[in-house]
């Protein structure tokens, strides 16, 4: 088996495992107690906090451990918003944040707060100008990820932090995807991260609040973790998390070069060996281990299943692989194709031969799925027909509407239009993306009796 | 070292350790993923949920895992209150709940909700009548612990649940102290518990919401744990928690008999061997392993320090051992002495010889602390003096005000009064408790220029 879903979780790092085992015996007691077992637990907790703070580049008393990265984000956003409530209730996030940030923003909105979502370019990156334009006199907080979890694009955190700083607005950075690779540059105010992304155990997140940042923890709290993370501290896991962060950092520079070379190879080979594919995300400013691409006329779930059978574990932002049946909000915000989407995220230590084997297997897996779905051949036959064709794809799920569109486009003359009727949310994203890939004109959408009519004009 | 603070946390059970190690390799991946590693993680999570549900006595789909017992309580209280918001915003708790419940109640109050706190008797127990009297037409939720964490008193959960059920009000049971010993009887609606109390790892709590109970999770949520506990599941720890719950349950009946015999011995021997001591909590309806007593004229922190030096780890509800300098709210609600307070909570497997050694060491440790503080001898000399004596204990901390009172009570004639000036919060509790123990009359408190004057009339 080759596990290529490091952006989701990675197995426990050997150093984390060792630290966990050692501290199970020493760190189970309540660190608030004065007796021997409590003092030992307290010492372990303090040492882990020092180590984690050094890796983040902050003071130990600015960092608390939480029960997960999600919890760190939720507590950080709520606390920072409450701390600046007098300034106002406006929150800025990027359109491609992790769902934990977006969920926190939705709760804020439901509670009467205002939220601006900063758009990204086709590579998935925000700009400092985008944040500058979103800032208002009542902005309480801005949030930006250090790098995107689905496409790997690195965000201009330092520039955005500068713009926010100039406006007196704190910036919360979700560093979940990047903290294992290095500290986050720039003058940010709050930072959240998650240990199981860097080889630490599940159940540990960290939240950093810089001195001087107004912060008011929300919900019930207790005396633990400076009143910012209620509940008994999970010290063995915290110790393991800090130890593995230090360990992966020691390997990071060298491993980044190696993984980048492997993902470069995937970017190049996929584009060459798989027809009708779009490699997405920034080719240069990106995390070392992530590469994402979308395949026309492919059902993401079927492709993942084929790859799993061949021994490869990857993830997908396609709508058909999610329980909500909507495509990834990241791909949507980027305006790229979401069907047949595959995210390969290599863990540290991924073997080159496994990557080669993946590249050998992929074209056949894609072709197999396309064949089953009856996808059009890469070069559809051109044929003259009626000026307007209507394709009824109602009740059919991604990627069928796009496949049916591709099959008939040659049946209308150049200048003629195809109206695709669809009630699948993914079509709104994938039909324009198909037009861009195919050099056809996306005219727009119109309401229909059922679903929506997506109108495409044949140009070639 | 003898660790006698099981009510706070216990070391990892060997079964938990084994399960943890095994599942570190199998349970690290995201259980929401469709690939092999994800499916394995999902299977482990499902099996752990089944096992935990069986131990609780509920359906698997009624139980979610949380990041701690505290988190289970906070989420449970908030979700149940929100689910019945249309009924009203009145919450009932007992006065002796764990701080996590009381903190949740405080947040509800700060947010405009109403809270009733049901009083307890001198043994720390509520009555069903107390809950019945507190119920109102706008009561959204009632909370009651299964057993008290500081004195071990078992609460009449089934009776209270019946009263609540008759009024259509859900009852949330904090079962943190008792779940290792057995399921909670009665027709409760929600239940919270914490794995590190039964030998599971830190970082795992559980929240049960019975089918049909209105529940609306508060704050940002995600698709995990039925939308009731956001953040990546900590599966290795969850597996270990479920395994150890099953393991301790298998030993519970036999171990309960053995520990009860040991704590009976402590109850009897302490009362006999230590002068001026009050053993608190219900002598019969109590958890097997907990016994609590308070020693007049003793500084709790100094006593804990002496016991730690002698190799015993115990805790205390005395004000001088807490960061807030207020005595335990439990002892306060019971109206018992808080000074020189010691809670012995034996872990399963506690050795009889360690308990014997503790009983050998304790009288000397108490006497040593009393000597250092200049405590009065057990039988103070009676002497006639002025009718009213004023003792200035301002700026002095527990147990000094009581020691100074005891030293002068013999200097006023029978019928005369002593006014103790004190600004220590513990005096409000400990001076009346001393009067009761000594057969003197506590007249009441009066405001003074600084602090409060506690007035005591000599009767004997």
TrEMBL record, chains A, B:
InterPro entries: Aminotrans_V_dom (IPR000192), Cysteine_dSase (IPR016454), PyrdxlP-dep_Trfase (IPR015424), PyrdxlP-dep_Trfase_major (IPR015421), PyrdxlP-dep_Trfase_small (IPR015422), TusA-like (IPR001455), TusA-like_sf (IPR036868)
Pfam families reported for this sequence: Aminotran_5, TusA
Cofactor requirement: pyridoxal 5'-phosphate
Swiss-Prot/TrEMBL catalytic activity: (sulfur carrier)-H + L-cysteine = (sulfur carrier)-SH + L-alanine
Membrane-spanning residues: none
Record-linked Gene3D superfamilies: Aspartate Aminotransferase, domain 1 (3.90.1150.10), TusA-like domain (3.30.110.40), Type I PLP-dependent aspartate aminotransferase-like (Major domain) (3.40.640.10)
Limits of the UPF0033 domain: 391-415
Keyword terms of this UniProt record: Aminotransferase, Iron, Iron-sulfur, Metal-binding, Pyridoxal phosphate, Transferase
GO molecular function: transaminase activity
Protein family according to the UniProt entry: Belongs to the class-V pyridoxal-phosphate-dependent aminotransferase family. NifS/IscS subfamily.
UniProt protein name: Aminotransferase class V-fold PLP-dependent enzyme
